[in-house]
Structures
1.
Amino acid sequence: MTHDEVRSLLDAYIDDELDLASGLMVEAHLQHCPECTAWLAERRSLLGQLHADALRYPLPPQLTARIRTQLRSRAPGMGLQPQWYAALAAGLIVAIGAFLLGRAWQPLPDLRAELVNASVRAVLSSHPIDVLSSDHHTVKPWLSGQLPFSPPVPELNEQGDTLLGARVDYLDSTRVAALLYQHGHHQINVYVWPRGAMSAVPPVNATVDGFHLITVQAQAFTAVMVSDMSAGELAAFCERWRASAAATAGPGH
Amino acid sequence: MAAGDGGRTRRFEAVALPHLPAAYNLARWICRNEADAADVVQEAVMRALQYFDGYRGGDARAWLLQIVRNSAHTWIGRNRPAGLVPLVDTEVEAAGYAEDPMTAVASRAESAAVRQAITRLPLEQREVLILREFEDLSYRQIAAVIDSPIGTVMSRLSRARDQLAAIIRAEQRASS
């Protein structure tokens, strides 16, 4: 990658929008390019000045009331000038059509939203973990005692990932194991259940509200990784997890 | 819109109304005017209700923001031909600021300068900057909202940041 190519990717690098390979190439370039390193620092300082709290415009409370009243009155277009309809026909139909066809707007099975919600709840909750241990010899028996199955619990300690612990979660009327890992600044929730135990459509890879989801089949289990880390990083984590799960399970289990 | 769809309206309210703050913020930054932004948001919500049957779940905020953005552009095209919008935002003082009294004065001055600089960005750069920095949307979500490829989002956002840095530098030079 040339200097100029790297420069053109630095904004996306700051925003964590690069795929794993490009991110690594940018990082390799930064190690020996003081110019790009300085540019990056300056950019970060600019973005540090954009305090969303101070710069967002707060919603006027009377606007919410106005909108609620109009919604309740069930009179569409009330108080609007006729030219809105022409504008609506011209501008919006095209936009909405494109919008509905857009690949980003596939119907979202509830399970994906449920998985992300569960992860968000875990992050927000003061105790996201029921059994706090980085030792799978502690975590696995605990989970086996809580669940009708014994999920794989890879420790992954040697690859920059730390097992923080586990809890039992409830998805689509099914009790599942939720393993919590830390990688850098990010946490990864891994939901594990026996293959076929859940009636909902298993989620394919997706992005919901900034969270990435990756589904993987490991032996007799389905596992879904959910994290706010970049999709590339999560894919790498997923591969480490799957390989380690396969290695620890062994044929005798 | 006959009787019997009260449940639909309630469902719509549950999906759309939580995102009114984001909707208003975007409209306010695009229109650069409080009263216009309020009208645009109200209109956009009524449009969204009409299209609610086509909404199949998913990212409600980005869905609503796209409709708001379209309403705002339509509104600008009709009411504010280019050149009529004042560059100086007269309502800067009316907006909310950090509460800490120790830093309020300094941060207020800094925020006012940054706010003024963002206001001066061209619309197509301003909107992607707002969606990214204030609404924290991913490039993919922004691409859907502005109905453009992700590459366009990347280059516009980069240009917006370049431009913003240049405006702030120029302001600092002028004031020193």
2.
Amino acid sequence: MPKIKLPTKSPHIDMTPMVDLFSLLLTFFMLTASFRPQEAAPITTPNSISDKSAPDKSIITIDITKDSKIFFDMNKNGKTFDKTGKEVADTATHYRRTLLEKMGERYNITFTKEEKSKFDNVTSFGMPIANIKRWLHSDKPKEKEALQVGIPMDSTDNQLAMWVRFARLTNPNAEVIIRGDGDADYKTVKKIIDLMQENKVNKFNLVTNLQKQEAKLED
Amino acid sequence: MAEIIQEEKQEKGGRKKRKKLSTDIDMTPMVDLMCLLITFFMLTTAFSKPKIMEITMPEKDTKPDPKTETKIQDTRTINILMSGDDKVYYYNGLADPKKPPLPQLIKSSYSKDGIRKMLLQRNKTVFKQIEELKTKVLKGELVMSDSTLNRKIKEIKKSDKASPIILIKADDKAKYKNIVDIIDEMAICNIAGYAVVDISPVELDMLKTAPK
């Protein structure tokens, strides 16, 4: 029996086009990516049919967790418009820094330059103002997390109201976004909405998950 | 590198034959890494933008003036009351302790056959008109931009003078989810007029005696 001679084929595949494509895709995604900000607490937002996207500039975000802790966040920069009316990114204003200065004045706490720039680069926080310094200086994630007890909102010490007021004074155009956990008490949400209305905010954006639903009329 | 190898070979065997060097580089690790990175970026970008639901609250008047207060017809009003344990009730008209009898609370639910069915029934004319308009646009019988369509829908909502006006009220036991669900129902049913308002003491009493 003659031996069946298999043609010796190279097992290599030319991967160059594939790599080319991958590089392109990778560059595209890297450039367009805007990262999800680190969450201070896990929040499961309720569902709705709304497919409007949240604005990403000039916003004040209030987080409400399941156990009704409140977190506050404000954009570092706002948005401005150039001569032609086109929206441009505003990098000159430092809203966060100004906000912290104003809050410090109100509660007699002086913040150093280093602390202010640190505050510029963090996201949402939830703690009494007295603990902000400690939180900013802390390097341990565990300690940081332990400090996040929510912003006090009692009638005797309403710090959230102050944050909101000074945030509104710093950036009057900021839109308010409420990101509440579905299981949070309506009582807390209502308190926050009332507080906002006292500060002349009547339009709210509630963060929701998109879930399509259909309605049909039965005859 | 290539030079050195060649020299070694020549020294060893003293042969003049040059070995053909492969120009292929093993790209597998690079491709692996790229795949991972792409997956990572794709997943993080797709979910980064949250969706929002807009809601405008009626302006709080510190000194309500009875002259400027908006009057709404009792017959058009539907009140939706929400309480803990996902309970939802509704009643028609106005609950005024001075004008007994108080309206009867009707138990409903957040499901498709609950509050939505009732709202659709009450909002029939407006809902039908909007649906007709939307299907016409979808089928291509009417060509208009999204903004014109939205404007037309708004016009339809405004023109109807008999569509219901919903007052959404929740007590302290209700969850945030409940209120979002109800506001969402308003959007689903194309309700023109609705507002989230404070619950009154009368209604709290009504909730207490409501059917379980």
